[in-house]
From TrEMBL:
InterPro entries the UniProt entry points to: PorZ_N, Reg_prop, Secre_tail, WD40/YVTN_repeat-like_dom_sf
Sequence ranges assigned to domain PorZ N-terminal beta-propeller in this UniProt record: 43-204
Protein name, as recorded: Two-component regulator propeller domain-containing protein
Signal sequence, start to end: 1-17
Organism for this UniProt entry: Mesonia ostreae
Length: 763
């Protein structure tokens, strides 16, 4: 086997070792398989933005994702080179990743992306074909050559009649000729050993039709044309050999067998083109196949909904499901968390809160590290689920809001009730002309109060807020006075939260913040620009109450804070406050000015996680310090478009949902404890080279934490705002402390409880 020794020394690349991402966890969906490749005793399956391998002998599954350094773009094709023990991943953007299974490193190849003469749509990578020490890359602009012996790009071939770009679906080599299946350019060929393949005039064509694929089997050339006909090249003509009634999705040769895949059929031929296997009956599911192959007498199928499946050649009616456990989908909309549980929804609406076109997607539930996926069919075929609310006193009971079908009640992952216009008093949406939209009930924000009542809002109706009493029965509240244009174009209600006093707050898409005080049955509103409510935009997308009862507002154009939110019920002139910070040059600036903020979450230390279209921000409790900013470029975040963030207060794990997948970050902030029994410091010892923070958790809120050297000299002091604090292993933030044992002296806020622990520092 050839050894790659120049892996880190070549052209533009980004390297990320797995150890660098030890604080991250991949929670991607592996059920939408785009392509399959085999070799080295493994089957490699490409999902939407990640890959996994399945080893036949041990049945071991290994995930390969952004945690390992993959790019998390949309994958179009993959190829495993047995000669070089490398996995090549081709993306729709033109990016290419090279993964080394031996040392688990990733090389990002950006040469195609950086070609300024090629439009983004034409950069898509369609297929890899290995010949001798070269990899021919089929793209929407032509063919690029990649040299496997030194991992360098070679020439690029534009093979149109006049050297123009031509979409190439697949290539193969037969009798020293390279053949390319093209769209609208026929099958083109040239001498593969020519040193001048960049000369378009050397490329000849067979017909001018469009072709989906070209392969070589038993010294014979086969193609698939756009009429889904399997044809054989005889002389200069293509002879029909088989006809398919469905669009052919995949065409390949493996282990001297030719495999043709449509969305609902797999047909496998031997090298004489006699049919060996014909799979067309799927008893357990409705197929939506993307690819298939045969490997060591087992047929592997890639399905866009069911994941990777396997069947024996002797029994193609029984399938094994091989994809790793995971959520239904990657395009996350909303998250809800309680200790050791996470709920995920995949609904959507546009910037005007319009849910059309409606989607048909289920929801996912992660419980004790196991995924339970509830399908669209199991949820009564209701549509567009956006948020979940977990009953804090009965956590197996979960309510799901739908921006079309009202409110669903689920117990133990089973649908027990749907509340809509037929049985609850929930109203159907009203168009600006005053007409009712039949069967369209748009419930969005939902939350439980301390008494176990569920509150929610409904868009485009007169009674836009409801209360589902803990004992049963709905109560509705007229919101038409506080939001008089409730049926106007693009008006709707967003996230709803409840403070400790039972006051209700929710956002709107055009009218700012709405509040309701149940004790006085009073509505109030904060809206407008700098002259009134000081909200940068009246589209309030997200809300959060922090540990100081301050209300944080995330709008489509920035961030605001109400320091005493209940004051809005007494003062009609209440206005929000921006957060002013100093940039690196000492110039005052507004924090996150102009940013569209989709979620705000408060952790156990009263710090703030902010979800934006430019990544995830982790801010200090007052917003003055950015502790982290995670983006796709500097972390395993699969997309900069972050849709929601939630925190498990017991473990400190931070779940970050994006439009391209879900990840978890191992945070350090936890909720406060009742005692100091579980106080711990980690990492401990602090070893040479460690540059991160030391976390001390298991604290009570307001605890005083002093760190001294062994002689009693104070080096750090802090008060906990939640259940944990951090120390940068410096003496009052200046110089790193020397090696030695450091005492951690902890005193509760009421000074009735103390605790002592130790931290060893090794420099």
């Amino acid at each position: 086997m050839k050894q790659i020794v120049l892996f880190f020394l070549l052209f533009t690349l980004i390297f990320q070792a797995q150890s660098q991402n030890a604080n991250w966890e991949d929670l991607f969906s592996y059920y939408s398989i785009q392509d399959i490749s085999t070799g080295g005793g493994k089957v490699f399956a490409a999902a939407e933005n990640s890959v996994f391998s399945y080893r036949r002998g041990t049945q071991e599954i290994e995930k390969i994702s952004s945690i390992q350094g993959l790019s998390s773009e949309k994958i179009n094709t993959i190829y495993y080179s047995a000669n070089y023990n490398l996995l090549f991943i081709g993306y729709k953007t033109g990016l290419m990743d090279v993964y080394n299974p031996q040392d688990k490193t990733v090389l990002k190849v950006v040469d195609i992306i950086e070609k300024v003469t090629i439009t983004p749509a034409n950069k898509q990578i369609n297929h890899f074909y290995e010949y001798e020490n070269k990899l021919f890359i089929s793209t929407n602009y032509g063919i690029s050559e990649f040299r496997l012996n030194n991992l360098e790009f070679g020439d690029t071939f534009f093979i149109g009649d006049a050297g123009e770009q031509l979409q190439v679906a697949q290539t193969t080599v037969l009798n020293d000729k390279i053949y390319a299946a093209t769209q609208e350019g026929g099958v083109r060929f040239a001498d593969v050993n020519s040193s001048n393949l960049v000369d378009f005039s050397l490329w000849q064509n067979i017909t001018n039709n469009s072709f989906r694929g070209v392969v070589t089997l038993n010294n014979t050339l086969y193609v698939i044309n756009n009429n889904n006909s399997l044809q054989q090249l005889q002389g200069n003509n293509f002879i029909n050999k088989d006809q398919f009634n469905e669009e052919i999705k995949d065409f390949r040769v493996n282990e001297e067998k030719l495999i043709v895949t449509t969305f609902n059929k797999v047909k496998i031929y031997n090298n004489q083109l006699s049919t060996l296997v014909n799979i067309s009956n799927f008893n357990d599911f409705s197929p939506n196949l993307s690819s298939a192959t045969i490997f060591q007498e087992v047929i592997y199928l890639g399905d866009l909904n069911e994941g990777l499946l396997a069947a024996s050649t002797n029994n193609t009616s029984v399938f094994r499901y091989l994809s790793p456990d995971g959520p239904l989908r990657n395009d996350v909309f909303g998250l809800s968390v309680i200790p050791n549980e996470l709920w995920v929804t995949y609904g959507e609406y546009n910037g005007f809160l319009d849910p059309y076109p409606l989607n048909s997607r289920g929801v996912s539930h992660l419980k004790n590290d196991e995924w339970i996926n509830i399908s669209y069919e199991d949820l009564g075929e209701k549509k567009n689920f956006v948020r979940t609310a977990i009953n804090p006193s009965q956590t197996n009971q979960v309510y799901i809001s739908s921006m079309y079908d009202g409110l669903l009640e689920v117990n133990d992952e089973e649908l027990v009730q749907v509340y809509d216009q037929t049985n609850s008093g929930l109203q159907e949406a009203i168009r600006p002309a005053g007409t009712i939209v039949q069967n369209d009930v748009r419930v969005n924000g939902i939350a439980f109060d301390r008494d176990g009542n569920l509150w929610g809002n409904v868009s485009l109706v007169e009674k836009g807020m409801f209360k589902l009493n803990a004992g049963g029965g709905f109560q509705f509240f007229d919101t038409s006075e506080i939001v008089p244009d409730y049926f106007a174009n693009n008006l709707g209600f967003t996230e709803l939260i409840i403070d400790n006093a039972g006051n209700i707050f929710f956002g709107t898409s055009k009218d700012g913040l709405v509040g309701f005080q149940p004790s006085t049955n009073t509505f109030a509103k904060v809206s407008g620009n700098e002259t009134t409510g000081n909200i940068p935009d009246n589209f309030v997308r997200s809300l959060a109450l922090d540990n100081n009862n301050q209300l944080w507002l995330g709008t489509s154009q920035g961030l605001r804070v109400l320091f005493g939110p209940s004051g809005m019920f007494d003062n009609p002139n209440t206005s929000a406050n921006e957060i002013i910070i100093l940039d690196d040059d000492g110039v005052a600036q507004e924090l996150l000015a102009g940013s569209s903020i989709s979620a705000i979450t408060v952790d156990g230390n009263n710090n703030k996680w902010i979800a934006t279209e430019a990544g995830a921000f982790y801010l200090s409790s007052n917003g003055q310090e950015t502790i982290y900013r995670f983006t796709k470029e500097n972390s395993p975040l699969p997309s900069n478009s972050v849709t929601d963030i939630e925190i498990d207060e017991v473990s400190g794990k931070v779940y970050i949902g994006t439009r391209n997948g879900l990840v978890a970050f191992r945070g350090t902030a936890t909720s406060s404890s009742d005692t100091f029994e579980k106080v711990r410091a980690f990492p401990n010892p602090v070893r040479p080279g460690y540059s991160g923070l030391v976390t001390i958790d298991g604290l009570r809120e307001g605890a005083n934490v002093k760190i001294t050297d062994i002689e009693g000299n104070l080096v750090h002091e802090v008060f906990s705002e939640g259940g944990s604090v951090q120390w940068d292993s410096r003496a009052f933030g200046k110089h790193k402390v020397a090696s030695g044992v450091y005492m951690v002296l902890i005193t509760s806020k009421d000074q009735l409880e103390t605790k002592v622990t130790k931290i060893m520092v090794i420099r």
